[in-house]
Amino acid sequence: MTRTLLALASCLISGTGHAGPEQAGAAPEPAHALPEHKSLEELFPDAEPPALWIGSDAPELTLSRFVRGEAVTSFEPGQTYVVEMWATWCAPCIAAFPHVAALQNKHGDKLRVIGVNIWEGSDGESRADEIEEFVANHPEMRYTVAIEQGTSMADNWMKPSGRDGIPTAFIVDGTGKLMWMGHPMAMDEPLDQIINGGYDVEAVTAKKWNGHLASMAWSQMLISAHEGKADRLFEVCKTLVYDGYRGSPFALNHISLRLLEYADATKGILGLAYDAAERACELTEWRDWMILDTYALAAFKNGDRDRAIEWQRKAIELAPDTSKPELQPQLDLILGGG
Questions:
Q1: 63-196 has CATH 3.40.50.150 classification
Q2: Contact yes or no for 82/72 (Cβ under 8 A)
Q3: At what angle do helices 249-260 and 267-283 cross, to 10 degrees?
Q4: Which residues of the chain carry a pLDDT beneath 70?
Q5: Which of 15, 153, 303, 328 could form a disulfide with 148 if both were Cys (CB 3.0 to 4.6 A apart)?
Q6: Which overall architecture, per CATH, does domain 215-335 show?
Q7: Which pTM was predicted?
């Protein structure tokens, strides 16, 4: 069985350097009524936004050294800023460098990008030397690059905003307010609107809040599975499948796998795993071999052996040659009846 795990970017999309779900998004209206489930708000009735949220005053810039570009020590009125957090060990951060540079080039003097190095293992002069060498080897970082003072930027920006993965970008508007935060590959449209007009802060805040609650539910799923709390796992995953990640096929695929692998899976849990896998197949038009692999297992565990055989064979047909051998054992299992 191929285990498709989301990795930041699945990370397209929460896009972080850590494993995690993609960003929750709006899903098409279902053709029929969905099974009863709690909304994200009902699942976490006492949830409050993080201390640093959209509309908050941007924290101070506490930087120990500027490695490239002009120094920026404070936010000037009327100027838009992007504060982008990165680390040398973070492959998604490195992949985002050219895109961040392209945005700086596009917006010119209307924008100041500051790439801030955080979460490095070294400190002091050894850290400074390491970052100096790294940046020298990455000419694509065509914007201001700095090193945080101690762990201050991680402590005062990342932690209070609930961001636990990098790269993460924060957009600060001309009034010094935090207007957006997320993966730098997803900031083109909000950045353009913040600079040139048309930014709907209320709509963005509502979407971010929905994503924040979905991330909380994702964490609850992992904790509940680890602690063997089947009832809570079922409750949370119903919300994720029918609400929070209904429009996100790779998140749905991951949820289905989690449920199928759960040691004490009930009939309800297995049925939910099937629904998640089926929805993921629909969203990918039944053409993603990894998701079909999951769907076949879900069908088999729900007693539909013929359908499991059909779609496991289809998964093998669509898979690249190097991956076909990984899928054959599951087909053999299904053909043998388990």
A1: no
A2: no
A3: 160
A4: 1-32, 338
A5: 153
A6: Alpha Horseshoe (1.25)
A7: 0.78
For the chain, what is the largest distance between any 2 Cα atoms, rounded to a whole number of angstroms? 70
- Residue 122's pLDDT is 79
- Where in the chain are the domains? 63-196, 215-335
Q: How far apart are the first and last CA of the chain?
A: 13
Cα separation of 235 and 132, whole Å? 49
Q: Where is 186: in which H helix or E strand?
A: none
Instruction: Enter the tokens of residue 290.
Output: 């990894």
Instruction: State the residue for tokens 């498709």.
Output: 4
Quick count: other Cβ atoms within 10 Å of Cβ 189? Answer: 12
The tokens for 334 are 């299904």
β pairing state of 63-68 and 178-182: unpaired
Q: For residue 250, what are its two tokens?
A: 């790779």
C-alpha torsion sign, points 192, 159, 98, 77: positive
Burial of 309: CB neighbours in 10 Å, binned 0-12, 13-18, 19+: middle
How confident is the model at residue 5, as a pLDDT? 38
